[in-house]
Here is the input.
Amino acid sequence: MDNFCCFSSQLSGGRSSYGSGKGRSHQGHTKYGFTLVKGKANHPMEDYHVAKFVQYHGRELGLFAIYDGHLGDKVPAYLQKNLFHNILKEEEFWTDPGRSISKAYERTDQAILSHSPDLGRGGSTAVTAILMNGRNLWVANVGDSRAVLSKRGQAIQMSVDHEPNTERNSIENKGGFVSNMPEIKVKVLHSYLEYETENKKLSEFLSYTFCYVVKVINPCPLIISGDVARVNGQLAVSRAFGDKNLKSHLRSDPDITSADVDGDTDLLIIASDGVWKVMANQEAVDIAKKIKDPQKAAKQIVVESLNRESKDDISCIVVRFTG
Here is the structure.
């Protein structure tokens, strides 16, 4: 049985993943490996993944995805359980994969919003990759999780980072705004806990933070650094699943790209922004290209991200097509 992070559960979906795993196609020589590590933030792991090969209507499909949640893990868990299922049940999937993926993304988001009392006010990014018969690759994404293809060792970004500054016009045309808010580090008992601002006003955020940390006995220094563009001063991506309170100013339609997998195609890297905040596309490809075992390659990318002081949850899938 191929490794696939998805378990029976209630409406919220599966469970987040820790550790590593690997598998391979039933046809051909394609292999994959993944590694997931919880970040340093004081909340449960919010990254979920899918990695498996399946036989569907007599053809082999490789299904790979990373869902990076925020304000809770219920939305990425729901995506883990439902998004690929919704894509594959589209009538036009075999004849028009791109249109089917787009329709399924939109319908899945509508389902999440309709279940908002159960799934909460949070949301999730998504990057999905479907390998059809080992020859055709379809990548889609919303948010800033990323897919990078390597051909002859050269990195080719297959996804689009949906950041508030790059989609400012769309946000403002819908009545929203983009503002820059700082990252805040609170020193508590000699350890640093990172929080991202979720309120429009800094004072409101500080009040929320100290309530969340709970009963800080001694005054604690604040370290305020960097500017992060956010939709309505809250969310650091311009497209996402869920986020009902911001949905009127957000988009959930994916960017979709496709590529033929040929003899020049080395590997595919799918990772959450815990990798891409500290590592360039080509750097990740250079690491993975040197390691034939995709599980070990994914682990090394995660280790290097940690060495570069990535604080976020870190998830990485490497799919190796050759060698």
Observations:
- The first strand starts at residue 19 and ends at 24.
- The chain is about 25% helix and 35% strand.
- The radius of gyration is 19 Å.
- The helical segments are 74-88, 97-114, 116-119, 168-173, 202-213, 273-276, 281-289, 294-307.
